[in-house]
Write a structure and sequence with these properties.
Elements: H1 2-16, H2 19-33, H3 38-76, E1 82-84, H4 86-101, H5 108-124, H6 126-129, E2 133-135, H7 138-155, H8 161-182, H9 184-191, E3 197-198, H10 203-213, H11 239-258, H12 260-265, H13 275-314, E4 320-323, H14 336-357, E5 364-365, H15 368-386, H16 388-412, E6 420-421, H17 425-428, H18 430-441, H19 443-463, H20 470-473, H21 475-483
Parallel strand pairs: 1-5, 1-6, 2-4, 3-4
Helix pairs in contact: 1-5, 2-3, 2-13, 3-13, 4-7, 5-8, 7-8, 7-18, 8-19, 10-15, 10-16, 11-13, 14-15, 14-16, 15-16, 18-19
Length: 485
């Protein structure tokens, strides 16, 4: 038994929680199962792993450069507030566990094993479960495990560790399978049969807003990239120019509010640096990291799509991999990412202002990860389904919900006092609802949550039983069938 646990720990520590290697090995195994020559499989492994690493460089650059600027607002104005960000949320849970219960969450690898196996079984028996997606984003799974541990403990403080792990493993495994399954159709449409779906923190959000976006679709079907500026404004038809100029205004305002003295004191710049060029460089860096991120997407997505057919044909027929939400930044309108980020920021800032005005007992500070990754992704999907109005409106609404939902749940479960909450869309909506159900109905609430999750793919299937599985098994046949209707 110890030998098997050792194998699992090696796999979890070095591959499952390292998405670049997990994607690389999925590609390697997939090509081998397709009986590709070993050198082609090795080449696919390298391209997929390096592609994901490039994507990670872009993501990390965005988070590391712009996250501290937003958090700086908290220090600059001496606000006692919780930062909504997965990393702040994870730290808050660790501190809360130590302070309130005198324990740490050290069983994350066992939890990942239970939940991952649960996810695979649900997909393996898709004939009955109607679930088609395997969640492969390991770093996100670890973040979610920490917050879920605290929420379950909040609802059932007298449970022992084994009971909590079993409950979490079942519920998280279901959430991963159901949430990523919700994004299958909309991602196939966005990517023209890309062969993957989303495994992240806003899966219910993008499914919900994609549905609403259809209601806002204009008769002319115009999307963000269809906007063509005349005359000198035509320079903004270039994505890099438009992104850089918008970010110069957006970050320029924030950096002026923070002030040069604060930025020097916090070691963002030195006394000899020019303030204007610091703002300009910071803004241009946004376009740089976004371009890097999109390059990474283009490098690994094609390899993953082609190779996963080997796994799908051999072990999990009719399944698709769920991957990082940033993978969709290489599809749809190129300006949707920037528009989503800015509109989401306006929504979050308005919500924070309202919390200040009403003197809310829980204040929130915008974190970059939910601000960018949630709202940019929602804009990409909303633009694809509903066009310009949807791409602007729904990230704004998402920004409001992220702040208000996080303020309510973080204050109630007492994580706000420890400085952070995960704050992503699903964790400001779906998980607070689950927490209320379990807190007030006890063990029956666990059964209710499980039944809700099981019912969702069944409802999806009954709406389109003839094409539900076809959309992942044969994209061309799916398009031909739906076009002939």
């Amino acid at each position: 038994m110890e030998f098997l646990i050792g194998i699992w720990e090696f796999f979890a520590n070095n591959i499952l929680t390292k998405p670049a290697y997990l994607i690389g090995f999925v590609v390697l195994i997939g090509y081998l199962l397709l009986k590709k020559p070993i050198y082609d499989a090795f080449s696919g492994f390298i391209k997929a792993t390096v592609g994901y690493m490039i994507l990670s460089v872009g993501s990390s650059g965005l988070v590391n450069n712009f996250g501290p600027i937003l958090v700086g607002l908290k220090e600059r104005f001496n606000l006692s507030a919780a930062v909504i960000d997965p990393y702040f949320g994870q730290n808050a849970v660790n501190e809360a566990l130590s302070s309130a219960f005198g324990k740490t969450f050290s069983n994350v690898l066992i939890l990942l094993l239970i939940a991952f196996v649960m996810n695979l079984l649900l997909v393996k028996f898709k004939k009955y479960t109607k679930m088609r997606a395997v969640f492969t984003t390991g770093h996100v799974q670890v973040q979610q495990a920490s917050t879920t541990f605290w929420l379950i403990l909040f609802c059932f403080p007298f449970l022992n560790d084994v009971s909590i792990l079993v409950i979490m493993g079942i519920i998280l495994g279901l959430y991963w399978a159901v949430g990523s399954n919700l994004t299958v159709e909309i991602t196939q449409e966005l990517t023209d049969g890309g062969g993957f779906c989303i495994a992240h923190q806003q899966m219910f959000g993008i499914a919900l807003f994609s549905k609403f976006a259809e209601k806002l679709k204009r008769a002319d079907g115009k999307k963000l990239d269809d906007i063509k500026f005349p005359g000198f404004l035509s320079i903004f038809n270039e994505n890099i120019v438009a992104t850089s100029c918008l970010m110069f205004i957006f970050f320029g305002i924030i950096l002026v509010v923070l002030g040069k003295d604060y930025l020097i004191q916090s070691q963002f710049l030195t006394a000899n640096d020019n303030f204007f060029f610091y703002i300009l460089t910071t803004s241009l860096n946004f376009a740089v990291y976004l371009s890097i991120l999109q390059l990474g997407v283009r490098t690994f997505v094609t390899e993953l799509t082609q190779s996963f057919q080997g796994i799908s044909n051999s072990f999990l027929p009719g399944s698709v991999p769920g991957i990082d939400c940033a993978a969709v930044f290489g599809f749809g309108s190129s300006n949707a990412v920037t528009v989503g980020f800015i509109m989401g920021a306006l929504g979050q800032f308005l919500a924070i202002l309202i919390l200040l005005i009403i003197k809310s007992p829980t204040l929130i500070i915008a974190g970059f990860v939910p601000l960018f990754f949630d709202n940019a992704v929602i804009a990409v999907y909303a633009d694809n389904r509903g066009g310009i109005r949807a791409a602007m409106l729904f990230p704004f609404i998402s920004g409001l919900i992220q702040v208000f939902g996080s303020a309510l749940i973080a204050g109630w479960v007492e994580l706000a006092g420890f400085g952070g909450y995960i704050g992503m869309f699903d964790w400001a909506t779906v998980w607070p609802i689950f927490t209320v159900i379990m807190r007030f109905t006890g063990y029956a609430g666990i059964a209710i949550v499980i039944l809700i999750l099981i019912a969702i793919p069944q409802i999806q299937y009954r709406k389109r039983p003839d094409t539900y599985f076809l959309i992942v098994e044969d994209w061309d046949a799916y398009k031909e069938k739906t076009n002939n209707k």
